[in-house]
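lol forgot to send this yesterday, sorry. struct tokens for the thing we talked abt
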């Protein structure tokens, strides 16, 4: 049996470098407004960088099915624009001071301007997508946006409360995995794929997105602030119970549960220290449990594209899950 070798990071970057640069340029061009403050906020966010993993997925999905038209650059900028709009709104909701190691946009321009700049970016993303004159693309993007907003609202309702794993998965699907899924589906749509192939690539995106968010949540608990680019344990401080915490709650002693409940309710580490929570999570193997779960989803992503044609793009898609699970930020 011929097993396709997984690409290296350098090979993936070489494969996509020009396309990703074109998307960056397109995003910059499309986010210029006659109203200077919108352009300023958008340019500030673009300069903040980021992994650009969503447009990368869209490009690889299209490439894996043999599509190389200009639409992939336009829609690559659309998914990054949508992602950026959600980050602006998230920072306002979470009252964040930093994002990727720099002051968050709302600390510079204030909440009111940033809410509106986020709204403008959402609408501009749809404006660009409209150029494709394809109802299926609009349907995917509208459903996605509704699910992301619903996810954010559900999360707000659950702040400070204990949730179970099923509720956690519903939240992270809406908040993160949904956009990964749609990025893959858009690439398939551009390539004119069958519904079955689009669903298969969407499944890859969903599994990858779940793995990505589980790892994000683990890093929030364990990474250093300098690596993460924002304060550590901000999820707990905001009253959010993530996978490792839910695992420890289900297995902990009465005292362990009380300590975790206290932090979630207080939304601070004043009465219970961050180190105390980490000790509880380590004692119950909760961090390893979350890591293992993320690895299982990453592997499921790889398996879901097993019968795609063997191409450089497929080799790259086989690389992405390992990158997602092993990253440190």
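and heres what i got for the seq, position by position
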């Amino acid at each position: 049996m011929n097993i396709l070798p997984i690409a290296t990071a350098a090979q993936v970057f070489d494969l996509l470098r020009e396309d990703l640069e074109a998307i960056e340029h397109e995003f910059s061009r499309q986010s210029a407004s006659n109203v200077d403050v919108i352009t300023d906020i958008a340019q500030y966010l673009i300069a903040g960088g980021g992994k650009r993993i969503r447009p990368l997925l869209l490009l690889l999905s299209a490439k894996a099915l043999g599509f190389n038209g200009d639409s992939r650059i336009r829609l690559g900028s659309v998914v990054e624009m949508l992602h950026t709009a959600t980050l602006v709104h998230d920072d306002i909701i979470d009252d964040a001071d930093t994002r990727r190691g720099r002051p968050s946009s709302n600390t510079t321009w204030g909440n009111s301007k940033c809410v509106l700049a986020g709204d403008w970016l959402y609408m501009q993303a749809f404006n660009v997508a409209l150029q494709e004159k394809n109802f299926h693309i609009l349907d995917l993007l509208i459903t996605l946006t509704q699910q992301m907003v619903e996810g954010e609202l559900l999360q707000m309702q659950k702040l400070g409360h204990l949730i179970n794993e099923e509720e956690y998965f519903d939240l992270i699907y809406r908040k993160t995995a949904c956009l990964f899924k749609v990025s893959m589906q858009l690439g398939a749509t551009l390539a004119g794929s069958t519904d079955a192939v689009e669903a298969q690539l969407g499944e890859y995106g969903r599994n990858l997105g779940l793995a990505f968010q589980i790892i994000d949540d683990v890093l929030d608990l364990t990474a250093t602030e300098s690596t993460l680019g924002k304060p550590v344990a901000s999820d707990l401080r905001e009253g959010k119970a993530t996978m490792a915490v839910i695992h420890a709650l289900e297995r902990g002693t009465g005292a362990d549960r009380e300590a975790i409940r206290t932090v979630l309710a207080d939304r601070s580490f004043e009465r219970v220290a961050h180190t105390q929570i980490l000790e509880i999570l380590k004692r119950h193997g909760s961090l390893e449990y979350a890591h293992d779960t993320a690895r299982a989803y990453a592997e499921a992503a790889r398996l879901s594209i097993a019968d795609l044609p063997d191409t450089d793009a497929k080799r790259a898609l086989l690389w992405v899950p390992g990158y997602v699970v092993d990253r440190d930020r």
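The chain is about 75% helix and 0% strand. anyway ping me if u want another try
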